[in-house]
Model the fold of this input.
Amino acid sequence: MRRGSLVLSLLLQVVAATGAAQEQRPDTGAGRRLRRIPVTPELERSAFADDRARALLHRARAARLAQDSALRSYDAKSYLRMSLGLGVRRLGPERLLFRTEHAARVRWTRESGVWIETTGRRHLVPMGGADLDLSEMTPVPYFPGREALWLPSSELRVVRDEVNEKDLLHPLATGAEAYYRYETGDSLQIRLSDGRGIQLRELRITARRPEWRAFVGSFWFDTEHGSLVRAAYRMAAEIDIWREIGEEGRRQVRELEERARTDTGKLAREARDRAGSIREEGRGTKFAGMLLSPLRAKVSGITVEYGLYEGRFWLPKLNVFEGELVAAFIRLPLRYEESYRYDRVNGGETLPRVPVIGEAGITADDTLYVSRGFVSIGSAPPPPAPGDTSLAAQLAREDSVMRYRHLRGDSLTALADSLERAQGDTVRINNLRLRAARNRSIIRTMVRRREECARDSTYFAGTSTMYDGALRIGIRFPCDTAKLAASPDLPASILTDDDQLFSTADRDQLLEGLDFSLQPGWGPQRPQFHTGVDLMRYNRIEGFSLGASLTSVLGMGYTAQALGRFGVADRVLNGELSLSRSNGRSDVALRLFHRLGVANDDWGAPLSFGASVANLLYARDEGFYYRTWGAEVGGNRDAPGPMSGAHMRWRLFAERQYSAGALPNTQASAGKWLGDARFTDNIAAQQLVAVGAAAELARSFGIDPKGTRFDGRIRAEGAATNRSDSVGATGYGRLVVDGTVSRPFGRFALAVTGAGGSSVGDLPVQRSFYVGGLHTVRGQFARPTGEGRVGDTFWLGRAELGTSFRALRPTLFYDVGWAGSRDAIHRMGRPLSGVGTGLSLLDGLFRVDVSRGIYPEQRWRTDLYIGARF
Done:
């Protein structure tokens, strides 16, 4: 297996087509190499919590391998939708990166194979980007040999008898007892219209060890036949992409070194050369891992639901996947849904047999992308030229395209032949021949479309075989592709909310089973050492600060981590010991810490990598810091009940807070030499002990960038304190409410932000409100003191006018805000204000602002940052 191929294959499916891209791999039949742990009597005994679990697993295993020959045909409508989001922070705004929808009529008979007719297709890339054609992802509900359990691996799309460590570990396959434990759970009876009752039983499956190739989940089976009826499951651990690629590389080196010792001559030299190449690649991967870190993927929830048809056949009804890729500071949440509606099951359909090469005039050029496992629907007709939409003009353009494709195919074939005669690179030769075949395929598809569309509304677009011939597919595609986007088989809008398309009540109930009690077994993993760009920062207190961590996945959902950090300027050692637990959808952690705290953490991220770059270049540190040590319990989760759809973060803390020093510990920056820029003073934090709680709730409404959107946030904190400058016990409470609404108006769009907050009790300096700076009032600079800049209450307003949504959007903005004493708000005086222009890229993912202060400072400033509101 090519280095990193399994991890990267899974990652690509998670990001691009989880569970749907129908990939064909060579040598995946009965002769493929297996690697698994033998099931010993002790493993067999410890795998089952009760005898009913053993009996249910064996029944489900037999049903999985059996094929019901009574199912002869079906006629179904399939629909899929994939949505990929983009976010920076867990509680920040989450934007839609792209969404695609596809509808098709899928017909199957046991004698003929599968015929797919695309009936609807559209996509949306609101942030700009290339046109997407994902028509090859048409999900097929059933074919002989199809795997009943919907897993994010093309290798497991068909039934494999035995578990294989080289792929995902199937929890129902033979030999799975070595990797899983089984326990029966609840039971449920379904009453049919004819009076019959069907008994369902839950089988709770947990991985023995916390490994990403394994799963934990709740699986429901028909107790009589062992058929899977519904399930909710997730991966037993996150995927650390760099770690997995590195481990696979080391495994390959060991195998090649062993081959070099046993082989002789040319084979030994090739093995040694290949091992050296992999070591060199490993050094490059290690360096890339330091620059782009973290790089993790996780599957937080998969649900599978079946429906009973003709009183006998359990067929797929709804599959939903949720996962997330984290790449450095970017989050890419993915949601994939596919559903089926059956017009007829065993309705006596007769279909022509899907042709294969050598039949009905079908040549190799009619099987499109077979070697890669993708079904292509061919190339669409060229768009009509402005002012000339005649049939003759369209045919002339098609002829021009076919001539180009013909010449291109011939040149690629000639180049491949010359390389083959010279005994050149085999991989390159195969790639050239594949590209030549692709050009010939396009020509034949265009010719066939022209001929068939003269007498019909659809045309035969090609064939494909999948999974060692287990699935034969014939494709028919509509002649008029313009009608696909307005198909009645698609929802009224591509931006329709999920819960309007899919009944979420049953799925939410299934996902509730993936709680903290359903975890992989205890199995501490070797601690992993990490340091990199993500653990580096620069600020006026620490100067350059380098961090390193040791992380061990323990099992039962627990992860232990030790993080250390040293600042060159203040020469203070900071650190954190944590024990966290996650169920894939929420997490909770206990931490002991000594850290640099941030007073003005209501906006922005002063200790992030992006802020550190600005500090190093411009000496523009806008964070106010204090030191703190203590303990906390906190977590992240999706909000429950009426706040469903919101994200929540909370913490209970007991900590000692004290000053980090009012003066900067460093003035080293590029700005010092280029423009005599200097770090401003820090706050003089008050020494105290605080015991309290804090929570933050964030919610976004509207995903259409060309429609009205709202991003809101509420933050609350309260603590009892024992301040060194007070007599007796004191305490405080603080509340922040923040919201941004944006709406387009013709060629322009307007965004308005309003925020306010106040407090009760004796608010210390390090928990006061601060106004001024990039994330509050642009054009002004963050200062630790000054009228209208700091206090126990505040308000803020920002307005932006930009062009209607584009990937690159210029804007004009005006900011105004004030902070001070809540007792003096009626005589607050003139607020801070600033004005400027900005350029937003990818809906605020990257942004550059040039601003000018109006009051009190009247200075220019330029800022480049990540994660803007608009």
Q: What stands out?
A: Confidence is low (pLDDT under 50) at residues 1-32, 368-385. The CA atoms of residues 13 and 183 lie 31 Å apart.
